[in-house]
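Thread: adenosine-5'-triphosphate complex, take 2
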Amino acid sequence: MTESVAAVEIDGVTKRFDDVVAVDNVDLAIDDGEFFALLGPSGCGKTTTLRMIAGLDLPTEGSLRIFGDEVGMAPPDRRPVNTVFQAYALFPHMTVRQNIEFGLRMRRVRNPELGQRVAEAIGMVRLAGMEERRPDQLSGGQQQRVALARALVNQPKVLLLDEPLGALDLKLRQEMQQELKALQREVGITFVFVTHDQEEALAMSERIGVMSEGRLLQVGTPREIYERPASRFVADFIGRTNLIEASVESPTMVRLADGARIAAETSMPTGSQVAVSLRPERVRLQPRGTAAADGSSLDGEVCDITYLGHAVVYAVTVGSTSVEVRSEGEVGEPFAPGDEVTINWDHGAAAVVAD
Ligand SMILES: Nc1ncnc2c1ncn2[C@@H]1O[C@H](COP(=O)(O)OP(=O)(O)OP(=O)(O)O)[C@@H](O)[C@H]1O
Ligand SMILES: [Mg+2]
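Output below.
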């Protein structure tokens, strides 16, 4: 039996630019055929990580393997990877076909292989019929497809994508997300997709790596990252959440400053200062006193109501904090500011997060 080897394996990689630590001791293994997203705010080190995989930057420390081969110091053209950037960098004076062929011609690939591979790449990105147009005769989405085809035609084992949809408006962006996801399934190669847009990462990827200030904070499936954030940063960065300050009372219970208790599992020691993450859409609002005191409810008072059409958002004052409650598909508005209420949630919706 052969052991499966990671498509990309990053071991203790650090990248410094003078005194800036752009990437800080990152360990990461990306599986063969996986759609992996690197997610984090501007400046957290996503592009630098991608550039090191591509060979466009060299790590200051650590090692990097692609399909088991050490490539830490290898030049870009010696790596089975291709990169698609946000600025597509198409050659403006060349046609779609010439743009896509360019890399193959440089490597002296000739017909009939050249023609076959180009036609295949054009088919994959659905640009048939547009081969003779120049980039300025294409829409943003079509230009993005040319950039993709130009990378795919080289048959890389790993495709690196750095905010490839960043220049597109929201609707086109969402269409391209679905298209890219389908394309990745079809070609089966490993995609490493960089984005600062958490919804995009959740919608597209099999696993997400969340970065902040050069460090990789958490790696997991979209569901794991959303439901079980490992830190305040991740809980807050992915979607909206309520972070309620608390201290650990037992492995299954935390206590708020005013003495109220919330049932939630934690491995943090007794007395640790933590926060409980409660997603607004997991919390329900009921008239005061209707929920059992089982550690999955709190008493509060409605302080503000925001009508969003598809949802109503309530701000509920609970002790010294405000908890956001999001009610989807509500027809009327059964509560008014000043109402005394009880908020409750299913056991398990409360996640304890430390720093
Ligand atoms: N060539 C360079 N010289 C000096 N500092 C750099 C260089 N490239 C990146 N940095 C710094 O390294 C850090 C990480 O940058 P990087 O481009 O990887 O961030 P990013 O996560 O891709 O951000 P964005 O979402 O804005 O693209 C930043 O502080 C940046 O200023
Ligand atoms: Mg970047």
